[in-house]
Amino acid sequence: MNTAVTIGPWTFDHVSYDEAADVVYLSIGPPRRAVGEQTPEGHIALFDEDTGEFCGLTLIGIQRVIKGELPDGVTIPSSQPINSQELSDLVCA
Fold first, then answer.
1. Among 4, 12, 40, 67, which residue's CB has the most CB atoms within a 10 Å radius?
2. What pTM did the predictor assign?
3. Model confidence over 4-50: pLDDT tens digits?
């Protein structure tokens, strides 16, 4: 999967899903060196190492989130949480 995904005000133009690890990687622009910050739901928000700008997300255990086994939603900067339907759309596209 490498289709652009828009969530709230953010468009992630590099998207990939590692089925074996059950992890979705979303990047604004090409992937780059970033500092990760854990979200309240246990995912990772990524911030550009040099500028501090929000630049991506690493969504961990996405199938378990979709099934309701892990907390629903993902908190991202300046936006509402992503709900499980939006997460499902990422891996079922």
1. 12
2. 0.76
3. 888 778 899 999 999 999 999 999 999 899 999 998 888 999 999 99
- Name residue, tokens 């468009």: 11
Q: In 10 A of CB 75, how many CB atoms?
A: 13
CA distances from 31 to 16, 23, 40 (A): 11, 15, 23
Question: Which of 93, 90, 87 has its CA nearest to residue 42?
Answer: 87
